[in-house]
Amino acid sequence: MKNDVSVWLTLMNAALNLGGALPAELVNQSRPFLGSRGQGFWGMGQINPAAGHVASNARQIQHHIIAAEALGLDGIVFPELSLMGYPIGDIILRYPDLVAQQLNTLSELALLTKETVALVGIVEPIANVSPTAKAPYYNSVAILHQGEIKGVVRKHLLPNYNEYYDARTFQPDTEVGIQPWQHKNTGHTVPTWDGVITGPSGAYGVGLSICYDWWFDPNTHPNQTCPIQGLLEQQPNIQLLINASASPSRSGKQATRQALFQNLAQKYQRPLLYVNQCGAIDEHSYDGASCAVAADGTLISRAPSFESALWIANPFTGVGVVAPSPEEPLASTSYFLSAPDSTLAFDATHAADLERTYHSVVQGIRDYFTKTGFQRAVLGLSGGLDSSLVAALACHALGPQNVLGVRMPSPTSSDGSLTDAEDLAQRLGMPIIDCPIAEPINVFESTRQDVHAQLSSQWPLGAPSFAGDNIQAMSRASVLRVIGNDYRALPLATSDKSELYLGYATVNGDMSGALSPLGDVLKTKVRALGAWLNAKARLKGAIEPIPEAILTKPSGAELAIDPKTGRHLTAEDALMPYELADELIWRVEAHHATPQQLQTMTLTYETRYTVAPEQKQAWLDIFFTRVERAAFKWWVAPPMIIVDGSGSLAHSDYRHPVTAKIR
Amino acid sequence: MKNDVSVWLTLMNAALNLGGALPAELVNQSRPFLGSRGQGFWGMGQINPAAGHVASNARQIQHHIIAAEALGLDGIVFPELSLMGYPIGDIILRYPDLVAQQLNTLSELALLTKETVALVGIVEPIANVSPTAKAPYYNSVAILHQGEIKGVVRKHLLPNYNEYYDARTFQPDTEVGIQPWQHKNTGHTVPTWDGVITGPSGAYGVGLSICYDWWFDPNTHPNQTCPIQGLLEQQPNIQLLINASASPSRSGKQATRQALFQNLAQKYQRPLLYVNQCGAIDEHSYDGASCAVAADGTLISRAPSFESALWIANPFTGVGVVAPSPEEPLASTSYFLSAPDSTLAFDATHAADLERTYHSVVQGIRDYFTKTGFQRAVLGLSGGLDSSLVAALACHALGPQNVLGVRMPSPTSSDGSLTDAEDLAQRLGMPIIDCPIAEPINVFESTRQDVHAQLSSQWPLGAPSFAGDNIQAMSRASVLRVIGNDYRALPLATSDKSELYLGYATVNGDMSGALSPLGDVLKTKVRALGAWLNAKARLKGAIEPIPEAILTKPSGAELAIDPKTGRHLTAEDALMPYELADELIWRVEAHHATPQQLQTMTLTYETRYTVAPEQKQAWLDIFFTRVERAAFKWWVAPPMIIVDGSGSLAHSDYRHPVTAKIR
């Protein structure tokens, strides 16, 4: 019987996720397994919501509720705030009619339910519960059953770090368990569902929680009680713990989640059902990977990663379909104050995180375009590493015919940059055009001389500046914006995280664009990702997308020639080796290492290369001086897809006053 | 005696705030009033802190502590987080050594105290109190007295709306009153100060709170207790309530605060001492106006607005010096869900808020430059309203010799725009130069044609676009950036709030810059502010700064000619009357009016002008369509000084996902 269930789950999950209507014979074949409700079969409605787009989110939910009813599942769970979208920012405060619209839609969704319990994440106005409340909302899950809204469960712990801003729009619940649904039109004072799934085949209680409520830790949440503990004390007949979540992908997050689930299942000796959303909302890329975990902590079912899915599992049977998920590092580091640990080595190969990074960025690009209603992208192809990787990832996300590369050589560009860019575009199958920028450079340089002449009597000229370099970068960005306007294409920013961190990027220039796909990917990881893409292609017998010359040349914007050597100044000449910069960024972001600690500890870089103490001090000075001055650039950076484990420069992730001093 | 105290307070506050050392004779004259401690004389240390700049903040605090000791005051109060700076963003999480540095400095400040109690706002590591805590910090006030840190008071209510993000970095305190200072080096388990000021002249208890703890409302803070109530129950001998605050200026905030203070004083029948910071940190402009309020609710002393000050008051005497504060509207509207009220009229004259707006913006510009270490600004002078007002305000903030105006006419610019700009610069006394942009326009237009030719076989050209207009705006911004680089000057963005709200601004163009001084000032208010500046100058017998022609011409970027009329297309042709747009913005931001409500209600605009129903519907459609599409522009906007009462587009104030739908 266990084997039969397993085979059926495999077939069913495959069929459900092929798209289209369910084959009638498959539904009929389901009778032996589903037969009657109460057996423990649940659907995980792993949808891809858009913020505030209630109609579109409702369509996905509706589709899955209908399927779940047809299959006779005990219940179906949708992610946190699935009907409104998460994160929602502050828009529900400025536009409260979105919430009213959402409640109307919720009532319509309720009408679709019969015997299957549907759990749908919603923004719940506190005014519906307490008319004098001035705080606006709860973050809730509505229980839809037999055509009605039968109650709600509310979020207790509100995360407010990194990409989480729950306390801006939500109040924590302090009641335990299912609460009555007090929408004005119902007037219910007690919930009309008792949390027990009953059917001809059995009965069992379920305990619902929302996202962070499963992450309770007395040291992180002093003066608060554990939401699961409270639930089980109130309702000891709970046999299945369910969580509706919106948990973005970050390096090591999957391992951290699995460790948590194993711990919870074993601690409470109950199976778990965890439903996470997929898709990207601005900077946040969610990986789905909803799962069922047995009471002994074993992973028994997992939905695909970075894909929409309706996935069926029975957490009680111990069998299920575990879809593959990208390789990931062992665990993510804590956002809060972890002590710097000089025994940890920096891994410049990023080998364990390339597949997940790839999916995270490709999904991030795809969904940004889909959700803003654009099909086409345009970017400058310099023949360098960053622009080549952005091009490759954008081609995967949008289709190569929708990604336009523009070669914009200046008088300081090398011939190799042109041929490498052309080679890349051919390999990717994307259109490419040429717009040399010698003329705009001449025009702006002539204006610049004219300004010097006009101002000479009034303002003394300062030290030699980067204006010449910036003219090139701004001229290129202007060309891309013009093309974007004329062809309804979004320009992509090409700066990587290392450059942005050190402020080695031009405002209104290479760092500008609609989206910054690599804004949270370190330079060493960009390089490794290029090699990984090539290796993946080789395995498939396909053409390697990134020309070898691009992967091996030193990074640099080719904006200037070193007068001493006659060669292009590389970025590493101007800054420091990227392998070192990336290690410093990682030690600061993930381990909060201080300048003093970095000075004293032996860096991984120092175990690989010989570094004189004065050189190390000089590089550390450059690092912190540049980081302190770069904050104004981060402020005007476009959305960047958050990828790293513990810290980024993304607006949604990190708030740094421009006028602040950090040392 | 009362009169003598009053005269002395006037002289003393004037002398203290002239700068330099206190005259010895004034200190001697103080003996009759101060004589011995215990009489109730307090200092309000209204400093202007910078985020993370512990050394600079400490210098200001040190200066005032020394003066307070010399004068024999009972105590001196500094603002919330005065030593670290508020708001601090997330930087204390990424750079925890800032907090360690701050604690060292705090110990040094404590050594300065003798008999005067000094209350200094600090970031307090929870690890100092509870070693297993994973949450990082409390928002605390340290009590410095007799050379020691004698205890702390911690913030209970953590605001998380608008510009407040307390829950990201702080945990709420749940203990009442003064807690022991448990820094590793002390090991104290009880506070070494009992909250009682004792001296030869008397003794009285003081009750300390931090900022939002005075704003408790059971409807806004369900499941929480009133911090003041808790304090008075624990320590009934409290005779003076003190609040250390960091409360930014917004339209109507001053009136809201005064109403609160009156209410608190009367409710608890005790006098109040309220200390607020001044100065700007990025988008936040604080107005100071620290004050003492008698037990009957009367305002008896107020420090200057928008200025650093050490201000002395005795809340028990009933007399004091009330420095003037700018006129303000009666009260600010609530950020949370206030119901739309169609009986409220929109005041397009903004008469009651111009003086405060002026100070808020001028301080915001000045402190952004001071705190980033820049002296000079550069901006384009189009002869239009926005750039003229930014120029005038920047000249007031930085000195006219430090503000460079650049005329950048294009072939579509009018002659009037050139002469008006020159007239303005002469009136302001600022340097002005010319950089025509015909050549860059030609070069980019030629590139554009070349792109069309190259792409014709691959991508069909879209609908006619704004690329031509954007070329002008981007070329101008590029010129300003180049000048900024060469002369170490910061470019100022000139877009106003109405334009930004409707997305009528060019990314990498007029909306780009280091700072957006008018980003939260509606177009109708910009116009009114210009007239107000002129009226103020007339009153002083000075030259009116803004030429009349600039105040009266219709707004528009002069980017294009209307082929039908042969005249410049005005912004109002492309959008809608600004008086209407501003009313809609106000009704949405301050009163959360929905599209449907706006459609049905009689707008103030409709009481003044005849509007056909189809025209109104068309304008509302333009409004909401543009607002929904503008979010990507807000994302890359530079810091904008927050001015309005209830809502803005500033990053610090409002979070709006770019991919969101709002209707």
Characterization of this structure:
The first copy, chain A, is α/β, with parallel strands linked by helices. In chain A, 39% of the residues lie in helices and 14% in strands. Chain A has 23 helices and 18 strands. In chain A, the strands form four sheets. A six-stranded mixed sheet of chain A has the order 5-4-3-2-1-14. A six-stranded mixed sheet of chain A has the order 6-7-8-9-12-13, covered by helices on one side. In chain A, strands 17-16-15-18 form a four-stranded parallel sheet, with helices on both faces. In chain A, helix 4 runs parallel beside helix 6 and helix 11 (385-398) packs parallel to helix 12. The radius of gyration of chain A is 27 Å and the shape is elongated. Chains A and B meet through helix 5, helix 10, helix 13 and helix 14 of A and helix 5, helix 10, helix 13 and helix 14 of B.
